[in-house]
């Protein structure tokens, strides 16, 4: 089950990005500053959220809560950076996503109020907004992320990796999987997923 879930995360992350280019620096690199203001580190949020999504009884709320908590913890573990609070912005993005307005209006609010640039204080919270708005569906998350514009591939890759890990391989239509295998023959999704599963289990 865990292998299937991580395999799904790998596949839909590529589906969202629409390319096989390396992940952008905003996804894996801490932003640092010599300032002494409160620390803001975001990469822990998406990674910890994927770990939370592997739990057998995980709910979408528990998955998102895991990301918020990881972002809070990240503030204590790395050098200080001048910027907005990632945990608070994740919560704001999710609040917008769960609103009663039509989907297009909620996406516009995420774009206007959260932002969709390369800045991690925007792209990470926006990814959580997309995840919540799609109710954890990986394909719908990819569609919403693409509609945001801006750094849509990074936002989509994060949101869809979390959604795919949580929902599992059955959430991805077979035609999407077939297309990804066809256009990326050099990538072995099964091997990557197996390796990630082994790593996740080893660190539980």
- Mean pLDDT, to the nearest integer, reads 77
Largest sheet entry: none
Summarize the amount of helix as a percent range: 55-70%
Count of discrete alpha- or pi-helical segments spanning 4 or more residues: 11
The CATH architecture: Orthogonal Bundle
Q: How far is the first residue's CA from the last residue's CA?
A: 16 Å
Q: What integer value in Å does the Rg equal? A: 16 Å
Any low-confidence stretches, pLDDT <50, length ≥5?
1-43
Shape: globular
Q: Percent of residues in beta strands? A: under 5%
Question: How would you portray this structure in words?
Answer:
The protein has 11 helices and no strands. It is mainly α. It has a single domain (2-19, 40-77, 84-202), classed as ADP-ribosylglycohydrolase fold (Orthogonal Bundle), CATH 1.10.4080.10. The two termini are 16 Å apart. Mean pLDDT is 77; it is low at 1-43.
Write the layout of secondary structure elements.
Layout lengths: L1 H16 L7 H4 L15 H10 L6 H15 L11 H12 L5 H12 L5 H14 L4 H11 L3 H16 L6 H10 L5 H14 L2
Offer a few descriptive terms:
204 residues; mainly alpha; ADP-ribosylglycohydrolase fold; 0% strand; globular
Brief synopsis:
The protein is mostly helical and 204 residues long.
């Amino acid at each position: 089950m865990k292998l299937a879930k991580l395999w799904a995360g790998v596949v839909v992350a590529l589906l969202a990005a629409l390319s096989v280019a390396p992940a952008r620096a905003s996804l894996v690199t801490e932003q640092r500053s010599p300032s002494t203001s409160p620390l803001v580190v975001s990469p822990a949020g998406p990674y910890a959220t994927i770990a939370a999504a592997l739990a057998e009884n995980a709910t979408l709320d528990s998955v998102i809560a895991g990301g918020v908590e990881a972002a809070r913890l990240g503030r204590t573990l790395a050098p200080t950076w001048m910027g907005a609070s990632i945990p608070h912005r994740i919560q704001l993005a999710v609040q917008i996503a769960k609103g009663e307005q039509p989907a297009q209006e909620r996406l516009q609010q995420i774009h206007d109020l959260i932002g969709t640039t390369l800045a991690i204080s925007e792209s990470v919270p926006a990814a959580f907004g997309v995840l919540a708005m799609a109710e954890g569906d990986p394909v719908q998350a990819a569609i919403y992320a693409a509609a945001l514009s801006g750094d849509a591939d990074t936002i989509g890759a994060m949101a869809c990796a979390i959604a795919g890990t949580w929902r599992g391989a059955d959430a991805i239509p077979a035609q999407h999987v077939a297309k990804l295998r066809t256009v990326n023959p050099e990538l072995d999704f099964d091997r990557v997923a197996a390796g990630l599963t082994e790593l996740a289990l080893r660190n539980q």
